[in-house]
Amino acid sequence: MFDALVVNKDEDGKTSAAVTQIGLEDLPQGDVVVAVEYSTINYKDGLCIGPGGGLVRNYPHVPGIDFAGTVESSEDDRYKPGDKVVLTGWRVGEAHWGGYAQKARVKADWLVPLPEGLDTRQAMAVGTAGFTAMLAVMALEDHGLTPDTPNPVLVTGASGGVGSVATAIFGKLGYSVAAVTGRMDNAEYLSSLGATTIVPRADLAETIKRPLEAETWAGAVDAVGGDMLARLLGQMEYGASVAAVGLAGGANLPATVVPFLLRGINLLGIDSVMQPYDNRVRAWGRIATDLPMDKLEAMVQPATLSDLPKLGADILNGQVKGRVVVDVN
Ligand code: NDP
Protein backbone atom coordinates (compact mmCIF):
# COMPACT_ATOMS: atom_id res chain seq x y z
CA MET A 1 0.00 0.00 0.00
CA PHE A 2 1.12 3.56 -0.62
CA ASP A 3 -0.09 7.16 -0.23
CA ALA A 4 -2.11 9.06 -2.81
CA LEU A 5 -4.16 12.25 -2.82
CA VAL A 6 -7.58 10.86 -3.72
CA VAL A 7 -10.45 13.13 -4.78
CA ASN A 8 -13.99 11.85 -4.29
CA LYS A 9 -17.32 13.31 -5.37
CA ASP A 10 -20.43 12.89 -3.21
CA GLU A 11 -24.03 12.49 -4.39
CA ASP A 12 -24.55 16.27 -4.32
CA GLY A 13 -21.61 16.71 -6.70
CA LYS A 14 -19.34 18.14 -3.97
CA THR A 15 -15.67 17.05 -4.19
CA SER A 16 -13.27 16.38 -1.31
CA ALA A 17 -9.56 15.52 -1.42
CA ALA A 18 -7.59 13.56 1.22
CA VAL A 19 -4.36 11.58 1.47
CA THR A 20 -5.44 7.90 1.35
CA GLN A 21 -3.69 4.52 1.19
CA ILE A 22 -4.21 2.71 -2.12
CA GLY A 23 -2.63 -0.37 -3.76
CA LEU A 24 -1.10 -1.18 -7.16
CA GLU A 25 -4.35 -2.93 -8.12
CA ASP A 26 -6.17 0.42 -7.80
CA LEU A 27 -3.98 2.12 -10.42
CA PRO A 28 -5.25 2.48 -13.98
CA GLN A 29 -3.95 0.35 -16.86
CA GLY A 30 -0.58 1.14 -18.42
CA ASP A 31 2.72 -0.51 -19.26
CA VAL A 32 5.13 1.23 -16.86
CA VAL A 33 4.88 1.59 -13.06
CA VAL A 34 6.83 4.61 -11.79
CA ALA A 35 7.83 5.18 -8.18
CA VAL A 36 6.97 8.88 -8.11
CA GLU A 37 9.42 11.14 -6.30
CA TYR A 38 8.24 14.68 -7.03
CA SER A 39 5.28 16.48 -8.56
CA THR A 40 4.23 20.13 -8.64
CA ILE A 41 1.08 22.24 -8.85
CA ASN A 42 -0.44 23.88 -11.92
CA TYR A 43 -3.72 25.76 -12.45
CA LYS A 44 -5.20 22.57 -13.93
CA ASP A 45 -4.23 20.69 -10.75
CA GLY A 46 -6.12 23.27 -8.70
CA LEU A 47 -9.20 22.52 -10.79
CA CYS A 48 -8.72 18.74 -10.50
CA ILE A 49 -8.16 18.80 -6.70
CA GLY A 50 -11.33 20.88 -6.42
CA PRO A 51 -14.44 20.86 -8.58
CA GLY A 52 -12.76 19.26 -11.60
CA GLY A 53 -13.40 22.10 -14.02
CA GLY A 54 -14.73 19.63 -16.59
CA LEU A 55 -11.28 18.00 -16.83
CA VAL A 56 -11.84 14.93 -14.59
CA ARG A 57 -13.88 12.13 -16.18
CA ASN A 58 -14.39 9.71 -13.27
CA TYR A 59 -14.16 9.63 -9.46
CA PRO A 60 -12.36 8.61 -7.30
CA HIS A 61 -9.53 10.49 -8.99
CA VAL A 62 -5.80 11.03 -8.36
CA PRO A 63 -4.70 14.43 -9.78
CA GLY A 64 -1.17 15.60 -10.64
CA ILE A 65 -0.57 16.61 -14.29
CA ASP A 66 3.20 16.13 -14.08
CA PHE A 67 5.67 14.02 -12.12
CA ALA A 68 9.23 12.69 -12.07
CA GLY A 69 10.46 9.43 -10.57
CA THR A 70 12.11 6.06 -11.08
CA VAL A 71 10.75 3.18 -13.16
CA GLU A 72 9.74 0.33 -10.86
CA SER A 73 8.53 -2.17 -13.48
CA SER A 74 8.01 -2.02 -17.24
CA GLU A 75 6.34 -4.11 -19.92
CA ASP A 76 7.84 -1.84 -22.58
CA ASP A 77 11.35 -2.40 -23.99
CA ARG A 78 12.19 1.30 -23.86
CA TYR A 79 12.20 1.37 -20.03
CA LYS A 80 13.69 -0.82 -17.32
CA PRO A 81 13.61 -0.67 -13.50
CA GLY A 82 15.85 2.10 -12.20
CA ASP A 83 15.41 4.45 -15.18
CA LYS A 84 14.72 8.06 -14.20
CA VAL A 85 11.73 9.51 -16.07
CA VAL A 86 9.59 12.64 -16.31
CA LEU A 87 6.00 12.99 -17.48
CA THR A 88 4.00 16.06 -18.52
CA GLY A 89 0.79 16.31 -20.51
CA TRP A 90 -1.24 13.61 -22.32
CA ARG A 91 -4.16 14.49 -19.97
CA VAL A 92 -2.49 12.57 -17.15
CA GLY A 93 -3.89 13.88 -13.84
CA GLU A 94 -7.11 14.81 -15.67
CA ALA A 95 -8.52 11.87 -17.67
CA HIS A 96 -5.91 9.41 -16.30
CA TRP A 97 -4.66 9.17 -12.69
CA GLY A 98 -1.61 11.37 -12.16
CA GLY A 99 1.39 12.17 -10.04
CA TYR A 100 -0.12 12.92 -6.60
CA ALA A 101 0.70 9.38 -5.42
CA GLN A 102 3.81 7.42 -4.49
CA LYS A 103 3.27 5.22 -7.57
CA ALA A 104 1.74 5.83 -11.00
CA ARG A 105 0.99 3.42 -13.85
CA VAL A 106 1.14 5.07 -17.28
CA LYS A 107 1.79 4.41 -20.97
CA ALA A 108 5.46 4.24 -21.94
CA ASP A 109 4.70 6.63 -24.84
CA TRP A 110 3.94 9.40 -22.34
CA LEU A 111 7.31 9.22 -20.56
CA VAL A 112 10.57 11.01 -21.36
CA PRO A 113 13.92 9.75 -20.00
CA LEU A 114 15.36 12.32 -17.63
CA PRO A 115 18.35 13.96 -19.37
CA GLU A 116 21.88 13.91 -17.92
CA GLY A 117 22.39 16.81 -15.55
CA LEU A 118 18.81 17.01 -14.24
CA ASP A 119 17.49 15.19 -11.15
CA THR A 120 13.85 14.38 -10.42
CA ARG A 121 13.42 17.28 -7.99
CA GLN A 122 14.82 19.78 -10.50
CA ALA A 123 12.58 18.31 -13.20
CA MET A 124 9.53 19.19 -11.11
CA ALA A 125 10.93 22.60 -10.20
CA VAL A 126 10.75 23.05 -13.99
CA GLY A 127 7.42 21.19 -14.36
CA THR A 128 4.88 21.70 -17.11
CA ALA A 129 5.26 25.49 -16.80
CA GLY A 130 9.03 25.45 -17.36
CA PHE A 131 8.80 22.79 -20.06
CA THR A 132 6.28 24.99 -21.88
CA ALA A 133 8.56 28.01 -21.48
CA MET A 134 11.37 26.04 -23.16
CA LEU A 135 9.04 24.95 -26.00
CA ALA A 136 8.26 28.64 -26.54
CA VAL A 137 11.94 29.67 -26.56
CA MET A 138 12.76 26.86 -29.02
CA ALA A 139 9.88 27.86 -31.33
CA LEU A 140 11.16 31.45 -31.38
CA GLU A 141 14.71 30.28 -32.13
CA ASP A 142 13.39 28.00 -34.89
CA HIS A 143 11.88 31.15 -36.42
CA GLY A 144 15.17 33.02 -36.38
CA LEU A 145 15.45 34.63 -32.94
CA THR A 146 19.05 35.10 -31.74
CA PRO A 147 20.50 37.03 -28.77
CA ASP A 148 22.33 39.57 -30.97
CA THR A 149 19.27 41.68 -31.87
CA PRO A 150 19.26 45.31 -30.72
CA ASN A 151 15.73 45.09 -29.30
CA PRO A 152 14.96 43.03 -26.16
CA VAL A 153 12.71 39.98 -26.03
CA LEU A 154 9.49 40.40 -24.07
CA VAL A 155 8.05 37.99 -21.47
CA THR A 156 4.51 38.62 -20.22
CA GLY A 157 3.08 37.23 -16.97
CA ALA A 158 6.71 37.23 -15.91
CA SER A 159 6.23 36.36 -12.21
CA GLY A 160 4.22 33.26 -13.08
CA GLY A 161 5.59 29.75 -13.62
CA VAL A 162 5.97 30.02 -17.42
CA GLY A 163 7.16 33.63 -17.33
CA SER A 164 9.75 33.11 -14.56
CA VAL A 165 11.37 30.19 -16.35
CA ALA A 166 11.27 31.94 -19.76
CA THR A 167 12.96 34.97 -18.18
CA ALA A 168 15.68 32.78 -16.62
CA ILE A 169 16.33 30.87 -19.89
CA PHE A 170 16.57 34.03 -21.99
CA GLY A 171 18.85 35.58 -19.36
CA LYS A 172 21.17 32.57 -19.41
CA LEU A 173 21.26 32.61 -23.24
CA GLY A 174 22.43 36.25 -23.22
CA TYR A 175 19.26 38.05 -24.33
CA SER A 176 18.12 41.45 -23.13
CA VAL A 177 14.84 40.54 -21.43
CA ALA A 178 11.92 42.89 -20.78
CA ALA A 179 9.65 41.32 -18.15
CA VAL A 180 6.03 42.45 -17.94
CA THR A 181 4.47 42.25 -14.49
CA GLY A 182 1.46 43.56 -12.65
CA ARG A 183 3.30 43.07 -9.35
CA MET A 184 6.05 45.70 -9.33
CA ASP A 185 7.17 44.42 -5.89
CA ASN A 186 8.46 41.39 -7.84
CA ALA A 187 10.87 43.59 -9.85
CA GLU A 188 13.92 42.55 -7.83
CA TYR A 189 12.99 38.87 -8.13
CA LEU A 190 12.59 39.22 -11.92
CA SER A 191 15.92 41.06 -12.23
CA SER A 192 17.62 38.28 -10.26
CA LEU A 193 16.22 35.77 -12.76
CA GLY A 194 17.66 37.66 -15.73
CA ALA A 195 15.27 40.50 -16.62
CA THR A 196 17.10 43.59 -17.85
CA THR A 197 13.98 45.82 -17.96
CA ILE A 198 10.76 45.64 -15.95
CA VAL A 199 7.63 46.73 -17.86
CA PRO A 200 4.58 47.58 -15.71
CA ARG A 201 1.55 45.58 -16.84
CA ALA A 202 -0.42 48.82 -17.22
CA ASP A 203 1.92 49.88 -20.09
CA LEU A 204 0.57 47.04 -22.22
CA ALA A 205 -2.89 46.62 -20.74
CA GLU A 206 -4.75 49.11 -22.89
CA THR A 207 -6.73 47.97 -25.90
CA ILE A 208 -4.96 48.73 -29.19
CA LYS A 209 -5.60 52.18 -30.57
CA ARG A 210 -3.33 51.86 -33.63
CA PRO A 211 -2.58 48.54 -35.38
CA LEU A 212 1.15 49.39 -35.56
CA GLU A 213 3.32 51.07 -32.94
CA ALA A 214 7.13 51.53 -32.75
CA GLU A 215 9.10 48.30 -33.44
CA THR A 216 10.10 47.53 -29.85
CA TRP A 217 10.54 43.76 -29.30
CA ALA A 218 12.72 41.16 -31.05
CA GLY A 219 10.44 38.32 -29.94
CA ALA A 220 7.96 37.53 -27.18
CA VAL A 221 6.75 34.73 -24.92
CA ASP A 222 3.17 35.59 -24.03
CA ALA A 223 1.46 33.89 -21.06
CA VAL A 224 -1.34 36.45 -20.90
CA GLY A 225 -3.29 36.56 -24.20
CA GLY A 226 -6.24 38.96 -24.56
CA ASP A 227 -5.65 42.70 -24.97
CA MET A 228 -1.97 42.37 -24.06
CA LEU A 229 -1.21 39.91 -26.86
CA ALA A 230 -3.19 42.02 -29.33
CA ARG A 231 -1.24 45.10 -28.29
CA LEU A 232 2.24 43.59 -28.43
CA LEU A 233 1.68 42.18 -31.94
CA GLY A 234 1.75 45.78 -33.17
CA GLN A 235 5.01 46.46 -31.27
CA MET A 236 7.09 43.59 -32.71
CA GLU A 237 10.04 44.40 -34.95
CA TYR A 238 9.84 43.44 -38.63
CA GLY A 239 9.65 39.63 -39.15
CA ALA A 240 9.65 38.85 -35.40
CA SER A 241 7.63 36.10 -33.72
CA VAL A 242 5.39 35.85 -30.67
CA ALA A 243 4.95 32.49 -28.92
CA ALA A 244 1.38 32.34 -27.55
CA VAL A 245 1.50 30.16 -24.44
CA GLY A 246 -1.31 31.17 -22.10
CA LEU A 247 -4.48 33.07 -21.35
CA ALA A 248 -3.92 34.43 -17.84
CA GLY A 249 -5.43 37.74 -19.04
CA GLY A 250 -8.12 36.33 -21.31
CA ALA A 251 -8.85 34.06 -24.27
CA ASN A 252 -9.98 36.77 -26.68
CA LEU A 253 -7.63 38.24 -29.25
CA PRO A 254 -8.95 41.70 -30.16
CA ALA A 255 -6.23 42.32 -32.78
CA THR A 256 -5.97 43.37 -36.43
CA VAL A 257 -4.15 41.44 -39.16
CA VAL A 258 -2.06 44.52 -40.03
CA PRO A 259 1.13 43.41 -38.13
CA PHE A 260 1.07 40.13 -40.09
CA LEU A 261 0.62 41.87 -43.44
CA LEU A 262 2.88 44.91 -43.06
CA ARG A 263 5.57 43.59 -40.70
CA GLY A 264 5.57 39.87 -41.46
CA ILE A 265 4.97 39.04 -37.78
CA ASN A 266 4.53 35.35 -36.83
CA LEU A 267 2.16 34.16 -34.11
CA LEU A 268 3.36 30.73 -32.90
CA GLY A 269 0.99 28.50 -30.93
CA ILE A 270 2.60 26.50 -28.12
CA ASP A 271 0.91 23.32 -26.82
CA SER A 272 2.65 21.24 -24.17
CA VAL A 273 0.01 18.51 -23.76
CA MET A 274 0.15 16.68 -27.12
CA GLN A 275 3.71 17.75 -28.01
CA PRO A 276 5.44 15.04 -30.13
CA TYR A 277 8.03 12.85 -28.38
CA ASP A 278 11.13 14.04 -30.29
CA ASN A 279 10.48 17.66 -29.44
CA ARG A 280 9.85 16.73 -25.78
CA VAL A 281 13.26 15.04 -25.62
CA ARG A 282 14.82 18.08 -27.28
CA ALA A 283 13.15 20.47 -24.82
CA TRP A 284 14.18 18.47 -21.72
CA GLY A 285 17.73 18.29 -23.08
CA ARG A 286 17.79 22.06 -23.54
CA ILE A 287 16.37 22.56 -20.02
CA ALA A 288 19.29 20.54 -18.62
CA THR A 289 21.82 22.78 -20.39
CA ASP A 290 20.18 26.22 -20.71
CA LEU A 291 18.26 26.76 -17.49
CA PRO A 292 20.35 28.26 -14.65
CA MET A 293 19.67 25.76 -11.84
CA ASP A 294 20.71 28.14 -9.05
CA LYS A 295 18.07 30.61 -10.23
CA LEU A 296 15.53 27.81 -10.53
CA GLU A 297 16.27 26.76 -6.95
CA ALA A 298 15.59 30.30 -5.73
CA MET A 299 12.01 30.04 -7.12
CA VAL A 300 11.22 26.77 -5.29
CA GLN A 301 8.94 26.31 -2.30
CA PRO A 302 8.68 22.72 -0.97
CA ALA A 303 5.37 20.93 -0.23
CA THR A 304 3.96 17.49 0.62
CA LEU A 305 0.85 15.56 -0.48
CA SER A 306 -1.11 16.82 2.53
CA ASP A 307 -0.41 20.46 1.54
CA LEU A 308 -2.12 20.00 -1.83
CA PRO A 309 -5.77 20.74 -0.96
CA LYS A 310 -4.75 24.20 0.31
CA LEU A 311 -2.28 24.77 -2.55
CA GLY A 312 -5.01 23.81 -5.02
CA ALA A 313 -7.27 26.55 -3.65
CA ASP A 314 -4.34 29.02 -3.54
CA ILE A 315 -3.38 28.53 -7.19
CA LEU A 316 -6.97 29.07 -8.32
CA ASN A 317 -6.89 32.37 -6.37
CA GLY A 318 -3.57 33.43 -7.97
CA GLN A 319 -1.76 33.19 -4.63
CA VAL A 320 1.10 30.87 -5.59
CA LYS A 321 4.45 32.53 -6.44
CA GLY A 322 7.38 30.79 -8.13
CA ARG A 323 7.54 27.00 -8.38
CA VAL A 324 6.10 24.53 -5.84
CA VAL A 325 7.88 21.16 -5.64
CA VAL A 326 5.77 18.43 -4.02
CA ASP A 327 7.76 15.63 -2.35
CA VAL A 328 5.18 12.80 -2.48
CA ASN A 329 7.20 10.61 -0.09
P1 NDP B 1 0.70 31.54 -13.34
O1 NDP B 1 -0.64 31.72 -12.72
O2 NDP B 1 1.84 31.04 -12.51
O3 NDP B 1 1.21 32.93 -14.01
C1 NDP B 1 0.43 33.76 -14.81
C2 NDP B 1 0.98 35.18 -14.66
O4 NDP B 1 0.27 36.04 -15.55
C3 NDP B 1 0.75 35.77 -13.27
O5 NDP B 1 1.78 35.42 -12.39
C4 NDP B 1 0.72 37.25 -13.56
O6 NDP B 1 2.07 37.68 -13.66
C5 NDP B 1 0.13 37.33 -14.97
N1 NDP B 1 -1.31 37.65 -14.94
C6 NDP B 1 -2.26 37.06 -14.19
N2 NDP B 1 -3.47 37.60 -14.47
C7 NDP B 1 -3.25 38.56 -15.39
C8 NDP B 1 -4.10 39.48 -16.06
N3 NDP B 1 -5.41 39.54 -15.84
N4 NDP B 1 -3.54 40.32 -16.96
C9 NDP B 1 -2.22 40.29 -17.21
N5 NDP B 1 -1.36 39.44 -16.59
C10 NDP B 1 -1.88 38.59 -15.71
O7 NDP B 1 0.47 30.60 -14.58
P2 NDP B 1 1.57 29.79 -15.44
O8 NDP B 1 2.77 30.64 -15.62
O9 NDP B 1 1.71 28.43 -14.91
O10 NDP B 1 0.79 29.69 -16.82
C11 NDP B 1 0.61 30.85 -17.62
C12 NDP B 1 -0.45 30.59 -18.67
O11 NDP B 1 0.01 29.56 -19.53
C13 NDP B 1 -1.78 30.10 -18.09
O12 NDP B 1 -2.82 30.69 -18.82
C14 NDP B 1 -1.73 28.60 -18.30
O13 NDP B 1 -3.02 28.06 -18.42
C15 NDP B 1 -0.96 28.54 -19.60
N6 NDP B 1 -0.25 27.27 -19.83
C16 NDP B 1 -0.27 26.79 -21.09
C17 NDP B 1 0.41 25.65 -21.41
C18 NDP B 1 0.39 25.19 -22.82
O14 NDP B 1 0.63 24.00 -23.07
N7 NDP B 1 0.17 26.06 -23.75
C19 NDP B 1 1.13 24.88 -20.39
C20 NDP B 1 1.18 25.52 -19.10
C21 NDP B 1 0.49 26.68 -18.84
P3 NDP B 1 2.51 39.07 -13.04
O15 NDP B 1 2.01 39.08 -11.62
O16 NDP B 1 4.01 39.07 -13.15
O17 NDP B 1 1.86 40.13 -13.86
Automatic annotation (TrEMBL):
Pfam families the record matches: ADH_N, ADH_zinc_N
Superkingdom of this protein's organism: Bacteria
InterPro entries: Acrylyl-CoA_reductase_AcuI, ADH-like_C, ADH-like_N, ER, GroES-like_sf, NAD(P)-bd_dom_sf, Zn-ADH-like_protein
SMART domains: PKS_ER (SM00829)
Organism encoding this protein: Pseudosulfitobacter koreensis
Protein name per its UniProtKB record: Acryloyl-CoA reductase
Domain Enoyl reductase (ER): 14-326
